[in-house]
């Protein structure tokens, strides 16, 4: 067994053991690391392991969700701002970099950064120097940078959606987390780990896995990886009426899905839907960046009706973020409005 249970990195499969060994080799190198892997494979856990086992463990670990950070706020959030730099800036703010000095900066979903934000990050990575928004003095920060992505950054670079020079800066060291479907035996091991954790959390007796449940865990493809497994164990542990976990509802849903659609067709359909979704999301972000946030202009560049393009904006900026930007007027909402996504 080659697990790090204190860091929730659990697994005994050969694929996962190799991944953990690579992580161990990267811990004390203190260079920038790019963590790749599908959604739900535990990229942030791996980043925290790199921090918590390193000489920087007593300093901050600062995660940044790039996918939820509006382009207009990127520089002020990352670099900080001086008093009076913009409206309502009544006092200076150190920013994430300043607050993380001596520790680790983790850029999650780094692929979702706009070209403009990528340029700002690249400048900082070159020599770890930066200026606060509205400031004139140059500051330096001693931080280790770890980034994560769940897409092919090389393909995005070829499509001119990600800066190649930034990719080179991020990809000094790298590790790829295998999907759960490629880790035979680990689903059951993880399930037992989560059961013990939830038993302690809720002060309830441990509910062991029924043999049918073990068979189900071993056969499932886990498109959502470890996150999907954890959520399912959590739900089953709290709602199961028996003293054992059976996953009757989950097993029936899986069988129903298999009856509706042949396995090959199901995989093809999911892969096709994911490819279309990834393309649309990249396309929308790139056009908004080129149009400097103006939806009307971006729609013209796309050759689409403005209302149809607006729906894509809401879909791929996440509904909460899009509505927030619309509510604050940071995305133009009228056909002739010249306001931009600031």
List the helices and strands and how they pair.
Layout lengths: L13 H13 L6 E4 L6 H10 L8 E5 L8 H6 L15 H5 L4 E5 L6 H13 L1 E2 L8 E2 L3 E6 L3 H6 L5 H7 L2 E4 L9 H17 L8 H9 L5 H15 L8 H13 L2 H28 L4 H8 L3 H11 L2 H10 L14
Parallel strand pairs: 1-6, 1-7, 2-3, 3-6
Antiparallel strand pairs: 4-5
Give a written overview of the molecule.
The protein has 342 residues and is an alpha/beta fold. It has three domains: 5-178, Rossmann fold (3-Layer(aba) Sandwich), CATH 3.40.50; 184-260, Helicase, Ruva Protein, domain 3 (Orthogonal Bundle), CATH 1.10.8.60; 268-328, Arc Repressor Mutant, subunit A. Helices cover 50% and strands 8% of the residues. The chain has helices spanning 14-26, 43-52, 74-79, 95-99, 115-127, 153-158, 164-170, 186-202, 211-219, 225-239, 248-260, 263-290, 295-302, 306-316, 319-328, and strands at residues 33-36, 61-65, 104-108, 129-130, 139-140, 144-149, 173-176. It has a five-stranded parallel sheet with strand order 2-3-6-1-7. The longest helix is centred in the last third of the chain and has 28 residues, at 263-290. The model is unreliable at 318-342 (pLDDT under 50).
Give the number of domains. 3
> What order do the strands of the largest sheet run in, or round the barrel if closed?
2-3-6-1-7
Spatial shape: globular
- The SSE string, one letter per element, is HEHEHHEHEEEHHEHHHHHHHH
Give the proportion of residues in helices.
Answer: 40-55%
CATH class of the largest domain: Alpha Beta
The whole-angstrom Rg is: 23 Å
Structural class computed from helices and strand pairing = alpha/beta
């Amino acid at each position: 067994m080659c697990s790090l249970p204190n860091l929730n990195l659990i697994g005994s499969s050969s694929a996962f053991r190799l991944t953990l060994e690579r992580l161990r080799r990267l811990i004390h190198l203190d260079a920038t690391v790019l963590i790749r892997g599908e959604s739900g494979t535990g990229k942030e856990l791996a980043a925290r392991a790199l921090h918590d086992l390193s000489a920087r463990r007593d300093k901050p670990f600062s995660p940044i969700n790039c996918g939820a950070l509006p382009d207009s706020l990127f520089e002020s959030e990352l670099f900080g701002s001086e008093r009076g730099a913009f409206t309502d800036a009544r006092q200076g703010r150190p920013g994430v970099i300043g607050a993380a000095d001596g520790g680790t900066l983790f850029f999650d979903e780094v692929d979702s950064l706009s070209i403009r934000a990528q340029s700002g990050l690249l400048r900082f990575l070159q020599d770890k120097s930066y200026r606060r928004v509205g400031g004139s003095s140059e500051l330096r920060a001693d931080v280790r940078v770890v980034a994560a992505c769940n897409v092919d950054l090389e393909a995005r670079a070829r499509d001119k959606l990600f800066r190649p020079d930034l990719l080179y800066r991020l990809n000094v060291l790298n590790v790829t987390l295998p999907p759960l479907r490629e880790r035979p035996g680990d689903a059951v091991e993880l399930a037992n780990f989560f059961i013990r954790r939830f038993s302690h959390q809720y002060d309830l007796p441990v509910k062991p896995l029924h043999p049918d449940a073990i068979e189900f865990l071993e056969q499932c493809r886990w498109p959502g990886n470890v996150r999907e497994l954890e959520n399912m164990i959590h739900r089953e542990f709290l709602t199961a009426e028996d003293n054992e976990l059976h996953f009757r509802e989950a097993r029936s849903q899986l069988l129903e899905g298999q009856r509706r659609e042949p396995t090959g067709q199901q995989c093809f359909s999911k892969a096709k839907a994911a490819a279309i979704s990834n393309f649309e999301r990249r396309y929308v972000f790139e056009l908004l960046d080129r149009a400097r946030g103006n939806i009307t202009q971006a729609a013209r560049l796309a050759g689409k009706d403005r209302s149809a393009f607006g729906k894509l904006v809401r879909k791929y900026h996440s509904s909460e973020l899009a509505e927030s930007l619309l509510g604050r007027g940071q995305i133009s909402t009228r056909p002739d409005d010249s306001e931009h996504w600031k």
